[in-house]
Predict the structure.
Amino acid sequence: MEVLVTGGAGYIGAHTCKRLFERGYRPVVFDNLSTGRRDFVRWGEFVCGDTRNPEDLAACFARHRFAAVIHFAAAIEVGESAADPLKYYENNVGGTVALLQAALRRGVNLFVFSSSAAVYGDPERVPIPEGHPIRPKSPYGRTKAVVEEILADCGRAHGLRWAALRYFNAAGADPTAEIGEQHEPESHLIPRLLEAAGGGGLVSIYGTDYPTADGTCIRDYIHVNDLAEAHRLALEHLAGGGESAAFNLGLGRGWSVREVIATVEKVTGKTLDVRPGPRRPGDPAVLVAATGRAEERLGWRAEARELEAIVETAWAWHQRRPRAFEGGEG
Ligand code: UFG
């Protein structure tokens, strides 16, 4: 079974390709390498192409008989999306529209989409169920929310069967440490702390006056291989006639920034130079997933349930990863 994986040279995409390959699928990675890495494409064919280019897409669909599409390719920086919104609408919305047109034209109607907890904005309550109001606070989050609406419209009009997977905070790396998280520049908390542990340097805590027990933001960190497995299960859910829906992917519990720092210090054995700083605009105080829907309908349950175990895999990757960057962000 051939599966088109856009953005398969990126962090979550590469882990998903590995999981699919191990389960007998044939992933075909479609990626423009603007942020993905060629050396992450190890489990299936590589096609260099851009989702915004209908010709690239048509050529790829003509050469393969895809049973399904898993769509990761997107720009992912919340802050950048506020400064350059059209980049996000063009890439994340325009690219998805072109991809859906190419897929539906070829009769491919199973579609798994990388959505985000960013669709919720500031939660009214935590843990956040999928039925929570959708009120994204950034252009990035709005692109994800808009695409979910587009998928639902295509379901009604064209029989598209879709799953929108709303990731909370992806973290960790495959235990083999052959693929992992790396962005350029790095903005995410855990890789930043690991960089500081590896080479020194300062990490700023973005706000210590939140209404949480220790004053720092709480996030639900989910291991990237658990995300990968959810994509496989979502694919099988849709292929088996399961209902289209959005699914939260998280552990259902959260850790504060200070707890993450303490965990990284424990795993690495280093004392980190961290300083309290101002809040980062747009950060909700607490984001924790209600995970019942994915458990009940997909039969999914995260295996890595402790932050320490997740950080251990990220640290192994951090120590092994190539220093020189090949092909931009991860
Ligand atoms: N943080 C710091 N210092 C840093 C980096 C981050 O204190 O140097 C804090 C942030 O304020 C936040 C937490 O650590 O409270 C986690 O921050 P990340 O940047 O690692 O992740 P986010 O929660 O901001 O972002 C994630 C995904 C986004 C998604 C968002 C949903 O990476 O794609 O959740 O809100 F949009």
About this structure: The two ends are 26 Å apart (CA to CA).
